[in-house]
Amino acid sequence: MGVRFSKRGLVETIERICAQESRANKEDMRTAKRWEEKIKTPGIVMYLKKGGSDQSEDQPFMRTESNFNKAFKMNKLLKVIYEPEHQKGWDKNLEVAEKQPFDGGSKTIAFSYVKNKKQFTISSRDFYEKGFNFVHNGKFYRYSTSIDHSEDALKPLPDGQTVRGFTFYNAAIMEREPKTGKILFQVVTQ
């Protein structure tokens, strides 16, 4: 994918991913594949697109588009969504959530670990990722990706029944819509 790990490089990559994998993008034949609506609740719509990408043809894309009330504060929403102590409060499938700053307390770069409970016949899944979170020109940006071979030494699997999931990338933008004041949040994951 060719990500430049600078603020400008990450902003460009995240904006390109979110625009390219937009349901409105009809110019890119790969992206023109239909997004299938999977979940729709007031303020949140989740889509799935099969067919993969140049990263992986087998792993589908997920796209979430959320609208939050203009009375909400963006920094508080971000804490609820991304801070482990809050995630467990709203995600009932989450068994473990941890966040470890990359260097001496950095809030921009961190490792995150989550383990989801086993559901029906699906094994429990866990993810170990490195992530970059920052604000630029009033918008929040996030880019994260799994850490290759993390089950070896960095973060061993917790048990023999958990499967290590792999995130090729997770790109997100949160911004306040100037006309309505609502907070718009879009996330694309493969």
UniProtKB/TrEMBL annotation:
InterPro entries assigned? START-like_dom_sf
This chain belongs to which protein, by name? START domain-containing protein
Q: Which organism is it from?
A: Strombidium rassoulzadegani
